[in-house]
Design goal:
The chain is α/β, with parallel strands linked by helices and 253 residues long. It has 2 domains: 30 residues, no CATH class; 218 residues, Vaccinia Virus protein VP39 (Rossmann fold). The chain is 33% helix and 23% strand. The strands form 2 sheets. Strands 3-2-1-7-8-10-9 form a 7-stranded mixed β-sheet, sandwiched between helices. The longest helix is centred in the N-terminal third of the chain and has 19 residues. It is globular, with a radius of gyration of 19 Å.
């Protein structure tokens, strides 16, 4: 603990309050599928908890990475059926290991977009969580401190086409975290959107990837389909320029 805390009671109180808040958040996950997650993996916890009264039975996790968000969703909705979508092989392997033993869960190792059979390159970065179907912009390189290290060929599928072919249940909740490609996914998911009661999406206020959707465009697109921004993630900074945050959108009554 820094010596300054002993001479500044206000700073000490603020530090203790912050630590108490962190511990309370993690304590809510005890005994759940997400009990092993760290603070960096539970940004959406409060947004998910706001949906408890919404009868969420089927969840689509688009951009599933290694499964931490799926584990968080299972902690809030343990009986939900979750379909996770992730194209990067190393993430898929991590996902399978992390969710081993969970029921009503299926991983789909595909990339989603606005057109089926669209050939693209998945741009893998030195920190693989920042990998995207879009090229890194200068702001992204500077902000994330990463660079592209590999390009993997992928064939995109429209979510609506894939869902129909696989006879998947329509979603009640769609989560999107695909590094700037969120709107391209939704343009291929009109039927899924009509079914959804809620969306949770990573929102960007600056261009980290070339041609990515930004906050205003995303909000306008989903508003035209009946969704309204209802809440922002608990880690959204106040009194500072916004870069990225999670947002919860609910279908308007």
């Amino acid at each position: 603990m820094r010596r300054a805390l002993f001479f500044n009671p206000r700073l000490l109180c603020e530090r203790l309050a912050t630590e108490s808040h962190r511990r309370r958040r993690l304590s809510r996950l005890h005994g759940t599928a997400a009990a092993g997650l760290s603070l960096g993996h539970i940004d959406s916890l409060e947004l998910l908890e706001l949906l408890r009264a919404r009868d969420i039975r089927v969840i689509y996790d688009v951009g599933a990475n290694v499964g931490t968000w799926t584990l968080l969703a299972k902690s809030v909705f343990p009986a939900a059926e979750i379909h996770a979508f992730e194209p990067l092989p190393r993430h898929c392997d991590g996902f399978a290991a992390n969710v081993d033993g969970l029921e009503r869960l299926e991983l789909h190792r595909i990339a989603l977009g606005s057109m089926s059979d669209d050939s693209r390159s998945l741009r893998v970065t030195s920190f693989s969580d920042a990998s995207s179907l879009l090229p890194l912009a200068a702001r992204g390189q500077a902000e994330f401190g990463v660079n592209e290290v590999e390009c993997l060929p992928v064939t995109l599928r429209r979510l609506d086409d894939y869902r129909t072919e696989r006879d998947l249940p329509l979603p009640d909740l769609i989560k999107l975290d695909v590094q700037g490609f969120e709107l391209e996914v939704l343009r291929g998911a009109e039927l899924a959107l009509r079914s959804a009661k809620a969306l949770i999406a990573e929102l960007s206020f600056a261009e980290f990837y070339e041609g990515q959707s930004l906050f205003e465009e995303f909000v306008g697109f989903v508003a035209a389909r009946g969704f309204r921004l209802t809440a922002l993630g608990v880690n959204t900074p106040l009194g500072q320029p916004l870069a990225q945050t999670d947002g919860l959108f609910l279908r308007a009554a």
